[in-house]
Design brief:
Helix content: over 70%
Order of helices and strands: HHHHHHHHHHH
CATH architecture of the largest domain: Orthogonal Bundle
Structural class: mainly alpha
Shape: elongated
Number of domains: 2
Radius of gyration: 29 Å
Strand content: under 5%
Amino acid sequence: MEYDSLKSHYRFTEEEAAILKEMQPKMRQVADEFIDGFYNYIWGFGKTADFLKNDEIIAYHRKKIKEWFLNLFCGKYDVVYFTGLYKIGEIHVKIGLPTHYVNSAFTYVRTFVLQHIEEDFSDKERHIKEIMAVEKIIDMNLDVLTSSYREEELSKFLSMSKYEREILGWLKKFSSHINFFLAGALGIVAIFSIGLFLYDVYLLFTGDEGIEKGILSVLGSLLVLWAAIELIHEEIHHLQGRGFAIGAFIMLAMAALIRKILIYSLSPEKGEELMIIGLVTLGLALSYWLVGRKRL
């Protein structure tokens, strides 16, 4: 990355560098407050302990974060400064830190700094310049840190042979077609679910199975239809680039089994089958819980 070009693209001036340097004494006074708040923030991610595994690592990390925070206001933003940032990004890639954590942590950094420069100011024009300088240096830091992730992905792609890249491209296209086919198939399932619901309503009024069983059948059909619609919504999200929602498929299977349970619960002779279906449903519920827990 050409760091002079980076500053040029963000229109970062020497005047703004000087403004940040003048802000450093004030930021040094609140550095410990920043570190405490920063750690409270990142522990909220849920998996921070996977990367900060013991007190020694935490102490070292706190020290480095404090140094990085104060260097935001060092006033000298040259090749050495940005190269150091890039190396930090490389470490993040090496340990497998999700880029989402980096982006989210910068929200805290930005909010903290802006709150403290809002607390006391007398010159509005100067205050606006401080805000602009802070916004630019934070954005440039984030740009450099996340560039390591982009270059890692690019290097993996470029390290493939031409044959491997062609196969990868073909598989992506094939996967895209399959996803659209799956979305269409789910639409058909939803239509059949509507048909099942209407059929159960028809049996409720014309059949001889009894009102109680008929109502339970209708409720079960509605449950299956609801699960099918949820699955369609999840597939739409998947087509838009989100992760594959295996939990939605589990939910649809659970809905179908619950419908069976509702119907079989009125038949004493179905006790053994009801118990088996109940155990399978319990297993699916546990799987659904584990999938949801992993996503969090």
